[in-house]
Design brief:
The protein is of the alpha/beta class. It is 27% helix and 25% strand. Its EC number is 3.1.3.5.
Amino acid sequence: MGPKILLTNDDGVYSNGLWAAYEALSEIAEVTIVAPATQQSAVGRSISIFEPIRATKIVLNGVTAYSVGGKPTDAVIVGLFALDIRPDLVVSGINIGENLSYESIMTSGTVGAAMEASNQGTPSVAFSLQVWDQGDKFDDPRHCGSSFDDAKKVVRDVCEKILTRGYPGNADVINVNIPSHLRGGYEVTHLARKLFHTGVERRLDPRGRPYFWINGPLVEDAEEGTDVHAIRKGNVSITPITLDCTAMPANDELRRLFG
């Protein structure tokens, strides 16, 4: 028996990115898809605890998959505990749009699913593909115009290395971002602080009442060594992430403050 992979995402079970990952991974492992039924981008590690979760077995492209009526975290939990898949690796993606910086990974459903898997004791990798047209992030993920050719090669190569050589120690999640035009190689990075220049646009509805859009352009670049800078150079960014958010360097100062 070969290795087992649970494949999920946050763009939904019909996303082109999910099926590109399936094509890449099914050549090296037994892959089971358990993914949200609908678009769930930017929900982070949200979990459904006030409503029931339904998981429906469907067949797409001749492949059996599970469509989960909930969040990416729900899909991972259903896959691990209800369907009892017991994978060697959980893969989340390929997300349509990059997940870079502190700002992005804290809200990303793609990274959130990988974090949940790791929290439950299963190694995980999150994959995201840069898009130059930001509208692609909000269009129907079944019809994304981006090419997944380079991304499929990266997904297979990264997962094959991890499955054969072992998961890196001291990391809980491996966050991989792939440039839309791959010009370089792999670069191990750390998280940049920001991905967007945050803004809020005030508008009026037809009745003259105000409403707001949270928006803002992408940051132009970040310092050397960050995930944002690597992608801007055309490299594949590989960032180890830990679930432990404790700010250890602040301990001494807090002890002085609170005795």
